[in-house]
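Continuing the series of single-chain predictions for the mutant panel. This is the parent chain; the variants come on the following pages.
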Amino acid sequence: MPSLYTEQHVQMQDALKKFIETEINPFVDEWEKAEIFPAHEVFGKMGKLGFLGVNKPVEFGGLGLDYSYAAAMNEALSHISCGGIPMAIGVQTDMATPALAKHGSDELRKEFLEPAISGEYVACLGVSEVGAGSDVASIKTTARKDGGDYVIDGGKMWTTNGTQADWICLLANTSEGGGHKNKSLIVVPMKAKGVSVAKKLKKVGMNASDTAQLYFDNVRVPQRYRVGDEGMGFIYQMQQFQEERLYAGAGWTKSSMIIQETIDYLRERQAFGKPLLHNQYIYYKLAELQTEVEAVGALFHKAVSLYIEGNDVTQLASMVKLKGARVAREVADWCVQFWGGMGYVEETRVNRFWRDTRLGSIGGGADEVMMGIIAKGMGLVPRG
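Parent structure:
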């Protein structure tokens, strides 16, 4: 048991794993084929059990625990036998709601955070655009003031949960000026007039998760729907990214599970008169991969420990995401290779892992962006 976790952490993980085995995994294959899962149904059940607000304020339905409990639960989500549903849950818990929970008014949190914690509402995050993915400062969506309202125009891309969401945590330009000081986070109900789903995107992996391109045409929302102070949206989003990137790092346990599944397969698979696992090259490579996975886990736990103490972990969270995504890709590729022809068949879990993990080095900030953040933190980026 990692020293970061107590018996209470483990009990909560066990409860979530039991839920996954009864309420999610039996239906994953069906949802993967449909390229969508019933988010309201699944989130509603999770909300009743307290799984969606582990570290959120008690007064809005959360459990009020520190982030280590959220990290433990995020690790347990690796037991879901696909990547798309954990990603969708992560958007709800660690991407669309942290800024609202920390900086939103009580009125706003009552209206949107509370039903997100209960699972009544599905949330999504609106940051990336067609011409602005990892480069958050270059987004074009605008929100101009008109009386007591904001009027929003623009579009968002790669929006997880986008076709099912009840509200979006939207990053928009609320004034002219610098790319870091002119943005605000605004809660926008998806049923508001002028919000439209342009299309549901077909992806190579993460198939059970619906991903949408959204348009905002003269969308009017009250200014009280702004999260925190005007012009602080970029800062809030960067803070929110810490939890998003830590969430990505929690997937290190999935890599370990796939390695073990591969070991079990190779122990039974005979070739040239002996189990494939008895090939020294194979078991040396698996040993090397497991070592890399454990290193990611140690880095993840270090970052979480510092985060719950109130430290800014932008640097470490970026390292966790960079290394975790790259190791997962390496594990997936080698395990598919070792599974041989069966590894190239969609029905195997190792193949699904292979398809799903490729997103890790792209979504939530590409590897190159993570390296830029890390280099900047090391004082390596020249000024100007």
